[in-house]
Amino acid sequence: MSKNILELPAPKADLQLGHLVELGRDPIGFWMSCAKEYGDIVPLRLGKIPACLIRDPKLIEQVLCDRTSFVKGEDYQILEDMFGKGLVTSDGDLWKRQRKLIQPLFLQERIANYAEIMVDYTEKMLNTWSDGETIDISAEMMHITLNIAMKTIFNQDLTNDEAKIVAEALNLGMNWYESKRKQGFIFDRNNPTEEDLRYQQAFAQVDRAIYETLEHKRKNPESSGDLLSLLMEVRDENGSKMSDRQLRDEAVTMILAGHETTCNTLSWTWMLLSKNPQVRAKLQQELEEVLGNKKPTAADYSRLHYTKMVIKESMRLYPAVVDISRQAIRECHLGDYKIPAGCIVMMSQWVSHRNPDYFPDPETFNPDRWANDLEKHLPKGVYFPFGDGQRICIGKGFALMEAVLLLARISQKFQLDLLPNHPIIPQPSITLRPEKGMQVVLNKR
Ligand code: HEM
């Protein structure tokens, strides 16, 4: 007979808040201690909402693949304030329709068209760098990945006024989310604070900028190959196009979901490379053998095996998305346990990717562990930096190509060394960022 999850041992909870305080203060530390003390399935509470953290790969696979029992839950509502009903936050028939419409735009052969933009922007950035200079590499990666996102999604440059409005609002949105996270997401929507109002005004400007861009594109219909132009053209089986509101939601979703994640993946990679010179030397050797001095192209992507392994290993230790969740829409079984309707099931990449059962010596940065197609041989639900199941990240191919090409081109030109004694603190907001930036010294090769 199956047991009720609530009978399992659990960390002490506040009567009103449940575990919201611990999750607001230090989610990573809290999840790690839960997994260590209580194992692969741990009952929790978010205020009055029942929840659990799972690490058993079979259970993670079950939750991510069963869309009839597990949906994006109440905890995604805060993201809806920013993303609207784009792919990340929508569910049910709307999500199904949108995913079907958007998926073809992310086929590998289409993404390859963006490789040149990625490398060109890298080149422009490198031209501004000088030998011996100290920079905040996380701010620099933020700027370049946002530039690439604006160009590939809107065909606009960040020097453009509308693009600047979007960029500034996104930053405000991220800070707003972080502030709410620290308060355990408890706030009164009917009594907005000054911070809430500033954020709302910024997003109203984003909406205007995007609607103006749509208007401009309609008046100048020559296709520039950017994602927004392509989204404007796709039609569902009834011949209907997306509404302007839907286009806005998908565009904001892609910029938000697409640039911070890749930016942070690269920042953490620079930190890990600086701390592991033997890995950096091996990476350099591959770049010399495969590329020599020439700029990488989409065609080189499949030949940069070790570079890809470096990115995979970096995303294992510092996943840009540290957790995802689903909510049970009915009472159901999770392995041997019964969970109540409404239960929020949390799965943390940070925790799962450090599971010693699958990754020996889990804290060590060792890209070689990915040799011999390790990823294909791992059970599902063990390594999922891009999520899994039908809702796996639509931008996975785009992000991997961008991360590999940027890592390759920058490493060909500069060696980045962490500034000694500069504290680097992982801050798990919508994405995992270094809280106080990441200072590095640039050494020209
Ligand atoms: C290193 C970079 C990236 C990481 C680590 C990442 C991670 C993720 C994860 C974990 C999910 C699943 C969320 C869930 O199941 O709740 C997701 C979904 C998504 N990502 Fe990414 N992402 C990255 C880059 C991108 C890029 C470049 C784009 C677009 C240009 C993008 C667009 C999306 C969208 C639209 C979804 C929702 C898919 C759906 O539910 O159908 N992501 N991403």
Structural class comes to alpha+beta
Name the bound molecules.
Answer: protoporphyrin IX containing FE
Give the % helix. Answer: 40-55%
Continuous helix count: 18
Spell out the blueprint of helices and strands.
Elements: E1 3-4, H1 20-25, H2 27-38, E2 41-46, E3 49-54, H3 57-65, E4 70-71, H4 77-83, H5 92-102, H6 108-111, H7 115-127, E5 134-136, H8 137-154, H9 161-182, H10 194-219, H11 227-233, H12 244-275, H13 277-290, H14 298-301, H15 305-317, E6 323-328, E7 332-334, E8 337-339, E9 344-348, H16 349-352, H17 374-377, H18 396-413, E10 414-418, E11 426-428, E12 432-434, E13 439-444
Parallel strand pairs: 1-8, 3-9
Antiparallel strand pairs: 2-3, 4-6, 5-13, 6-9, 7-8, 10-13, 11-12
Helix pairs in contact: 7-8, 7-18, 8-12, 9-10, 12-15, 12-18, 13-15
Bound molecules: protoporphyrin IX containing FE.
Short précis:
50% of the residues lie in helices and 12% in strands. The chain has helices at 20-25, 27-38, 57-65, 77-83, 92-102, 108-111, 115-127, 137-154, 161-182, 194-219, 227-233, 244-275, 277-290, 298-301, 305-317, 349-352, 374-377, 396-413; strands spanning 3-4, 41-46, 49-54, 70-71, 134-136, 323-328, 332-334, 337-339, 344-348, 414-418, 426-428, 432-434, 439-444. Helix 9 (161-182) packs antiparallel against helix 10 (194-219).
Outline the structure in words:
With 445 residues, the protein is an alpha+beta fold. It has a single domain (3-444), classed as Cytochrome P450 (Cytochrome p450, Orthogonal Bundle), CATH 1.10.630. The chain is built from 18 helices and 13 strands. The chain has helices spanning 20-25, 27-38, 57-65, 77-83, 92-102, 108-111, 115-127, 137-154, 161-182, 194-219, 227-233, 244-275, 277-290, 298-301, 305-317, 349-352, 374-377, 396-413, and strands at residues 3-4, 41-46, 49-54, 70-71, 134-136, 323-328, 332-334, 337-339, 344-348, 414-418, 426-428, 432-434, 439-444. A five-stranded mixed beta sheet has the order 2-3-9-6-4. A hairpin with a 2-residue loop joins β2 (41-46) and β3. The radius of gyration is 22 Å and the shape is globular. The termini are far apart. The structure holds protoporphyrin IX containing FE (HEM). The site of protoporphyrin IX containing FE has 22 residues, from α12 and α18. Residues 87-88, 99, 253-254, 257-258, 261-262, 265, 320-321, 324, 385-387, 391, 393-395, 398-399 line the site of protoporphyrin IX containing FE (HEM).
